[in-house]
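Hi F.,

I've been meaning to write this up properly since the lab meeting, where we talked about keeping a consistent format for the predictions we share between groups. The idea is simple: the sequence comes first, exactly as it goes in, then the structure tokens exactly as they come out, then a line or two of notes. No screenshots and no reformatting. I'm using this chain as the first example so we have something concrete to point to.
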Amino acid sequence: MRVLLVEDDEPVAESLRRGLRRYGFEVEWVTTGGAALEHEGPYDVVLLDLGLPDTDGLDVCKALRERGDVPIIVISARSDETDRVVGLELGADDYVSKPFGVREVIARIRAVMRRTRPRTPAGTPDVGPDRYGARLTIDRKAARVRLDGEEVALAPKEYDLLAFLTEEPGALMSREQIMEAVWDANWFGPTKTLDVHVAALRRKLAGAITIEAVRGVGFRLEISRDTGSDYGTGTGTSPDAGGSGSGGAAGNRGAGGDGTAS
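Output, unedited:
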């Protein structure tokens, strides 16, 4: 995947370039808004800093969106809600606040590409489902999940949550990152619904995955490698998993959720 990185902070840009390249991304780096608008591409996604030396990144975002529908992810130290809302209204597909981790950016890129990728044209060979360990497969084209070859009935948000967490198995995702990616970029209020959905995934995919709760931070999904083990089944065998499938998810802000719907 080809990325156009628009960032004038050299340490940030170099860190992103190295991280993205490790995961197989091709990165073209420019340091000004003018250079971004002059870049002929091709590229699949734009990572756009707002604090550029020659022009406001919001103006660059607007200009790029007027040219086409290439996904734009704003990356900025500006945490003000107004900038975030304006960026989204001008055509940005997502917004990541500094400081951030490379894995978070990659997860955001993949989530945006899933939302914006056009349907496969007729006659194009189908891409097979993604396999996670020996038991779990996710067919992202059809939005279907199978455990040991049998389809698992997931609610829409349960599927979205699983698809997001399996983009980077082993990566720790904060509650805020998950809520923004799976529910809404402007989500406000309690995140208890996340605990309910995590508990449902633990129950329905017992033995194939482990969703570890990291108190006060978020969740980490691991793929179970030993098919004969009970680890990750939601029965409390994982020391940090938070207990049984009915209340195994961590509570809101690490307070200890009860896993029941509000």
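Notes:
Residues 102-116 form the longest helix (15 residues).
The longest strand covers residues 209-214.

If this format works for you, I'll send the rest the same way.

G.
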